[in-house]
Design goal:
The complex is a heterodimer of chains A (233) and B (613). With 233 residues, chain A is α+β, with helices and mostly antiparallel strands. Chain A is built from five helices and eleven strands, in the order βαββαβαβαββββαββ. With 613 residues, chain B is of the alpha/beta class. The chains are: A alpha+beta (233), B alpha/beta (613).
Chain lengths: 233, 613
């Protein structure tokens, strides 16, 4: 197995490209860059490409990951250079390396860090905000309702997201605009979307967050090995 | 430029925001201050539909090849986006530079189907451009239109400033060159219209008065000034092989209706089916050479990264070098995971063998279009296929492992009787019998036959242009008959909405008065009429009532040969005498042979040269 693990960014207008469309975009670019991509067997061959997580629409990211299998080894520098040549400017591969990891990148991801910028309806003092944040994080239970579509039926489920919040700090403060830095559970062992966190914070506190104006940036994805949190590459 | 920050705020809240962002691979960026003419190519439907249209890619690249011209794209926003744009005062904008469309020099609509007309009005309104030509001022863009529906431009006469009739690739360039000269002179818009009216293929509706008889039929069309032409002759591309075809096309981020490379192999069709407008208006047949096509395919695959090439024409099997072309394309792309698809293929031994080769095991469905259920009626429409051909083909297809067959028919064709309608059921059942008469071990897969009927809409410039459409009730009677008769687990029956076809018939053969009803329907909230979930028949009927339009006059009335038809002033090259002769032969059930087997005297080679006939 010849496998490349790569890290890429997704910014500007590219934040409106969904997960499946992003997969197709990569496939076209690999084709144009003449990357010797390995295809699945069968009558509808698909490239062996997997993305670490589905980034929500509208979210900028500086740390997305993919695994790509190749038919033969090529120099990693030319892989990056050729693929970047055909990718849109707002998607860049910034790091890549060959890996022997049998596990898929998708199953490894545990945490995501984000920068979240919110706007408040009214001006408040920073210590009021800090108090609200402390109260929020001191709760044992923070419940949100997750809706899932399963075979056409809508299923609702209450989830306690408290343990999915690792860090939630004020990064900067300017009257009615606040920037937070957060670390949230991501992946198959539990998942919390930043917009759900903001929704919960708005609901559980006395703040008036204008949710429409929220801007989210993912900074990095993390894996966890023996309680040691590190980046995938 | 529109407020981009505001746009970024609303985009996460709408379905498929990538429809509205532009910046795709091969889209063109130019510096605006170096541009002399700004052209908006407007497709009156959503992004995914418009981006699948080959004409857009041709004109977009052709115009942008000129340094002084910037052609940008404009699509109809889906209803969720429309609502957000209105709420936030964002005018309709071009995808490339996010410029409000009322700042352009031209907005050019392509008319692919009548049911998109209300979208044109809606788009103009969203772009803060008055919908009626007469209400637009010196600073508004020129609103122009082209495409197959402009062969009867009259229903949009009040809305569009001028029409480009025929294959407008080269003519549009000519128009824009004229514009550059006119702009330097500083004269008024009327002066420019006077200039373009001199070009062959340009029709300026405001230069003509229509006089009516007492029975509402047309008495005549009178130019307001003797310098304006009495007839408008369509323009064609004489040598298709040498004409422009883009070697790079925009690659959408999201999946579109046709998510692949479209390779136009020829224009026109020699079959002469009597219901088919495309077969008449796109004459003469002109082919591209195999070498040209293979070369284009290579460039397009390199420039897009697409993994499928689709051959496009009205009837793929009629391409004179088809076998050679397919062989060369397969050879070229066999190691690159690039597939080939062939729509509009006549299914015979040759094509089935070929499809067998490229489709592998995914033998999901084959589509046949007998169009009519009985041999008699197939002869009336000059379809030229025998029942035996169809039965032989499906037998071979079942033998090769296919198990899904779709059969397309029309109901309401001229001279249709109950037996003809029942013939639809009979044919579908015969196809089923073919399957079960095969030896057990050859019955592969799960047989599913789908018979679909659409409601026949008589179109201008066809031999059936005088024919009364069936009434909605007649259509429903026929549908009920088939629904009642087709009762078999293996045979499924689908049908189109007769109400939509009725409306299509009114507009397709409409005159200038119909313009008023279109405006009224749009004012009452109609748009995206081609989308079943948004089509509001009652609003349309109300609009016709308000504007005093008798719908039956347009849809279900039989015209006489000597009546002046609203589109008579357009010369497509096919003569009225030929259409009359064909209509007479139709009624008698006489066939007319394919014109590749000898000239059928339609008139096209008298007025145009350049085709194969």
């Amino acid at each position: 197995m010849i496998k490349i693990r790569g890290k890429f960014t997704k910014e500007n207008e590219m934040i409106f490209i969904g997960h499946l469309d992003l997969m197709r975009l990569f496939q076209r670019c690999f084709r144009r860059a003449d990357i010797p991509v390995k295809y699945t067997e069968g009558y509808n061959p698909q490239p062996k490409l997997s993305l670490a997580t589905a980034l929500p629409l509208g979210v900028t990211s500086h740390g997305e990951y993919f695994d790509l299998e190749l038919d033969r080894q090529i120099p990693i520098e030319s892989f990056i250079e050729m693929t970047n040549k055909f990718l849109p400017k707002s998607i860049r591969i910034i790091k890549s390396q060959y890996t022997d990891d049998k596990k898929s990148i998708m199953s490894l991801i545990r945490w995501s860090s984000y920068i979240i910028k919110i706007n408040l309806e009214n001006t408040i003092d920073e210590d009021v905000l800090q108090k609200e944040l402390d109260d929020f994080l001191n709760k044992d239970e923070i419940i949100i309702t997750k809706t899932k579509k399963k075979r056409g039926k809508i299923k609702k489920r209450d989830v306690n997201i408290r343990e999915f919040i690792k860090d939630f700090d004020i990064f900067s403060f300017d009257n009615n605009s606040v920037i937070f830095k957060v670390m949230l559970k991501t992946g198959s062992t539990g998942n919390l979307k930043p917009e759900d966190l903001i929704w919960a914070f708005n609901n559980y506190s006395n703040l008036d967050i204008i949710e429409d104006k929220t801007k989210i940036q993912r900074l990095e994805l993390f894996i966890e090995e023996e309680n040691n949190i590190t980046t995938p590459i | 430029m529109i407020n981009k920050e505001l746009l970024e705020e609303i985009l996460p809240k709408v379905e498929k925001p990538a429809r509205y962002i532009g910046s795709e691979e091969n889209s063109i960026v130019k510096e605006i201050d170096k541009i002399e003419v700004r052209f908006g190519f407007a497709f009156p439907d959503i992004y995914e539909v418009g981006m699948s249209h080959l004409g857009l890619h041709i004109l977009y690249n052709l115009l942008n090849n000129e340094d002084s011209i910037y052609c940008e794209r404009v699509f109809a926003p889906w209803v969720d986006m429309e609502e957000k744009m209105k709420e936030n005062d964002i005018p309709l904008y071009t995808l490339e530079t996010k410029t409000p469309i009322n700042e352009l020099d031209f907005v050019g609509f392509t008319l692919q189907y009548e049911m998109s007309y209300t979208n044109i009005l809606n788009m103009l309104d969203l772009g803060n451009i008055p919908v009626l030509s007469e209400d637009r001022g010196e600073n508004d863009p020129f609103i122009i239109a082209g495409g197959p529906c402009v062969y009867n431009p009259e229903p949009l006469a009040d809305i569009v400033d001028f029409f480009v009739i025929g294959e407008g690739e080269e003519l549009t360039l000519e128009v824009l060159k004229t514009y550059k000269q006119w702009k330097k002179l500083g004269k008024d818009k009327k002066d420019f219209l006077d200039e373009v009216a001199k070009l062959e293929g340009i029709y300026v509706p405001s230069f003509y008065n229509i006089e009516y008889n007492e029975d509402n039929t047309i008495k005549g069309m009178v130019p307001k000034n003797s310098k304006y032409p009495k007839t408008i002759k369509k323009v064609i591309i004489k040598d298709l092989d040498k004409t422009y075809f883009p070697d790079k096309i925009i690659v959408p981020y999201i999946e579109t209706v046709h998510d692949r490379i479209i390779l136009e192999i020829f224009r026109g069709c020699t079959r002469g089916c009597r219901f088919c407008q495309a077969g008449m208006i796109y004459r003469p047949v002109r082919e591209r050479k195999v070498d040209t096509l293979v070369e284009l395919a290579k460039k397009l695959v390199d420039a897009t990264g697409h993994d499928e090439i689709s051959l496009s024409s009205l009837s793929t099997s009629d391409y004179s070098q088809l076998e050679e072309l397919i062989k060369r394309l397969i050879e070229e792309f066999k190691d690159k995971n690039v597939g080939l698809s062939l729509p509009s293929l006549r299914l015979d031994s040759f094509s089935l063998e070929f499809l067998d080769e490229i489709q592998d095991l995914r033998k999901s469905g084959l589509t046949f279009a007998p169009e009519a259920g009985s041999q008699r009626l197939r002869d009336v429409i000059n379809k030229g296929i025998e029942e035996k051909d169809l039965i032989d083909s499906v037998e071979e297809a079942f033998g090769l492992g296919w198990s899904g067959v779709k059969l397309y028919f029309m109901i309401g064709l001229p001279t249709e009787e109950k037996e003809d309608v029942m013939g639809i059921k009979d044919l579908a059942y015969k196809v089923k019998d073919v399957f079960f008469s095969l030896p057990r071990e050859k019955q592969k897969g799960n047989l599913q036959i789908t018979a679909s009927t659409s409601c026949f809409v008589p179109k201008p410039f066809t031999p059936f242009q005088w024919f009364p459409q069936n009434s909605i009730d007649e259509f429903y009677d026929k549908i009920r008959l088939l629904k009642g008769e087709i009762r078999d687990r293996k045979v499924k029956y689908n049908y189109h909405d007769p109400k939509l076809s009725f409306l299509e018939a009114i507009i397709a053969r409409g005159d200038r008065k119909v313009s008023k009803a279109i405006v009224e329907a749009w004012k009452s909230g109609c748009r995206f009429d081609g989308w079943a979930d948004l089509f509001d028949f009652n609003k349309w009927m109300k609009a016709f009532e308000t504007t005093g339009i008798d719908t039956d006059f347009y849809a279900t009335r039989s015209r006489s040969y000597d009546e002046v038809l609203p589109w008579d002033f357009i010369n497509t090259g096919v003569t009225k005498e030929f259409l009359i002769k064909e209509n007479e032969k139709a009624i008698k059930g006489e066939l007319t042979h394919d014109c590749r087997q000898g000239c059928t005297a339609c008139g096209i080679n008298q007025s145009f040269n350049g085709g194969v006939c």
